[in-house]
Amino acid sequence: MIIRSATMNVMTRAAQKAGRALVRDFGEVEQLQVSRKGPADFVSTADKKAEKILRDELLKGRPDYSLLMEESGGHEGKDPDRRFIVDPLDGTTNFLHGLPHWAVSVGYEERGELVAGVIFDPIKDELFWAERGKGAYLNDRRIRVSGRRRLSDAVVATGIPHLGIQEGEGQAQFLRRLEKAMASCAGVRRWGTASLDLAYVAAGRYDAFWERGLSAWDVAAGVVIVREAGGFALDSKGKTFKLDAPDILAVNDSLQKPLVDMLRAAG
């Protein structure tokens, strides 16, 4: 029998409630009012509404906890040592283009350590979740990272720089990394939702994922889920991933060294 902590239950309920609201708006995506935050970075009324639902639900369950949210930023509660890190709609561009691949992500941090995470894909009704020391799950099924040992058998995921993001050397570095991955791996995928990329590594669907320039709310939940599924969350130099790291690599044990070596070789 799977026993979730009270805090995990709060996180799960909040993510599912926000996800249900997003599904309703996804059915009317053409009518959404959309404003620009920056080049190729959109925010919709659905995004803001989902964030409000998450904020209200999380603080109802844990009123003293702090929050870090993509749209509204930080909120320091009475207990600064406990913090939810929230992305109300990861994959906004997919959402606004009618692509059914996006998620709600809620990470939980205690005294600077990531200890729990929930990633909810309401379109597929897939809830990825983990708590430190309790394993990782997809709905109620235990998940593990893949057991593949050779890059030539591996399917890896990444994020591609786009307009206004990682211009100049960032794009050049990505192209060098992509060239090496194309020459070494069985396939490279880019689906545009980092939280689900991490969840898919945890579930063994991808063998690895790397990306540069992500924010804390993109990865906080996924890092916990990958680790509890037996994987590693690193930076491109092979050091343990921190929320302020410039890039992330999620990978199983066997492919850890060859992928770190590949990323290092690309600069």
3D structure, described in words:
The chain is α+β, with helices and mostly antiparallel strands and 267 residues long. The protein has helices at 6-26, 45-61, 92-96, 169-184, 194-202, 216-228, 253-265, and strands at residues 34-38, 41-44, 65-69, 73-75, 79-90, 103-110, 113-121, 126-131, 136-138, 141-143, 155-158, 187-189, 208-212, 232-234, 247-251. It has an eight-stranded mixed β-sheet, with helices on both faces. Strand 9 and strand 10 form a beta hairpin. The longest helix has 21 residues, at 6-26. The mean pLDDT is 91.
Which strand order does the major sheet show? 4-3-5-6-7-8-9-10
Characterize the biggest β-sheet. 8 strands, mixed
Please name the CATH architecture of the largest domain.
Answer: 2-Layer Sandwich
CATH homologous superfamily title of the largest domain: Fructose-1,6-Bisphosphatase, subunit A, domain 1
Query: Total strand count, please?
Result: 15
Mean pLDDT reading: 91
Terminal Cα span: 47 Å
Anisotropy-based shape = globular
**CATH T-level topology of the largest domain:** Fructose-1,6-Bisphosphatase, Chain A, domain 1
What percent strand? 25-35%
Round the Cα radius of gyration to an integer and report it. Answer: 18 Å
Number of helices in the DSSP assignment: 7
List the helices and strands and how they pair.
Blueprint (H helix, E strand, L loop, with lengths): L5 H21 L7 E5 L2 E4 H17 L3 E5 L3 E3 L3 E12 L1 H5 L6 E8 L2 E9 L4 E6 L4 E3 L2 E3 L11 E4 L10 H16 L2 E3 L4 H9 L5 E5 L3 H13 L3 E3 L12 E5 L1 H13 L2
Parallel strand pairs: 3-5, 11-12, 11-13
Antiparallel strand pairs: 1-2, 3-4, 5-6, 6-7, 7-8, 8-9, 9-10, 13-15, 14-15
Helix pairs in contact: 1-2, 5-6
